[in-house]
Design brief:
There is one protein chain. The chain is mostly helical. The chain is built from 15 helices and seven strands. Strand 2 and strand 3 form a beta hairpin. Helix 9 crosses helix 13 and helix 9 crosses helix 14.
Length: 393
Amino acid sequence: MKFSFFRKKWFKIPYTILLYGFAAYGFLLTATYFAVKFSWTNESGSIDENNRYFAEMHDKYDQSFKVDSVSMIKHRFEVLNRIMLVNEFYPKNANQILEIYNKNKDEKLALRMLDAVDLQLRKNKAYMKAFAKWKHKNEKSSQKTTGLSVFEWMNIAEWQDFKQAVTKDKKYIDSVYHVTGVEPRLIVACLVGEQIRLFNSGRESYKRYIGPLKVLALENHLSYGVTGIKNGTALTIERYLAEKNSEFYPGEKYEALLDFDSTVNYATKANDTLDLRLQRLVQWENHYYSYLYTALFLREIKTQWEKAGYPIDDRPEILASLFNLGFQRSKPKPNPAVGGSVYKIKDTDYTFGSVAYEFFYSGELADVFPYKKKSFDEPRTVIKRQNGDTETE
């Protein structure tokens, strides 16, 4: 009777529940311990069905991306074309990718974003058909890539030598730009038209100067300097700088650019100005005056056409044609023709004006002679000029 209360119902039921509860809890703890110990609870996981695709895309861009400019242009072209393709189906995603690309300028990132879109659209028959068509066209185009310029005459070895030679004259051409406002690239376009013909018709000049020495060839028969200025043309350029009533008169700021030394008495030494003019143009190392006469010719021709109501500031092919043909052929009109001297380059006929045009818009040497907003800018004020050197402000 001593422990009779243990038999009481009010005690026995709760006691039994607690006893079995603690037993169950102990078993659970013991089972958990062994489950963890023997990795029975580890998630087996699964491999994504697109795992191989992810790996291929990662490896693809790690191996194919190059840092050279041609490759980067190719990747940029692919990014923009694929964005336009996605835009036809999902403009929202296309705009998101384009916004991020414009911000980061990261072609690899953009292509991976596009790959993520492609993965989701694999079952979209219309998209996949359009993508396959673009890819085939792109691959076919790549197979035709030659690495050459579309301008055939720029693929010859002589052109590479010329580029090195004209780069050496950058300081003179830029100096002329500062005092005349004539774009350096336009001056070089006229130079190209004059020098390139020597590759064929004057092979000796090429063999002696441009090829081995990487310097421009000087002309000294009727035409002078590296741009082939005739004495009569040079004299006319000088005259128009002073003739205020002339249709070619460019303005007071240019009047003194070609002045000769005033201490020389030219009335008694009739040939002195001719001798000095030729000395200016045929200097072996300093071609400043060749470019200055060229730029002033262009400035005077531009003035004539503007006064007549037919501006040709943005027509390098017309300005170059007239530079080759001379003042007497400059007749302002609504529809001027491109032309000039005709010469062969590797058995193909070219006109002076067409060669100048192709160079000007080719992008060649743009790092040395970049494009300006205008072909003719306002020149800087000339403070002093001695022996072809200038100081400006």
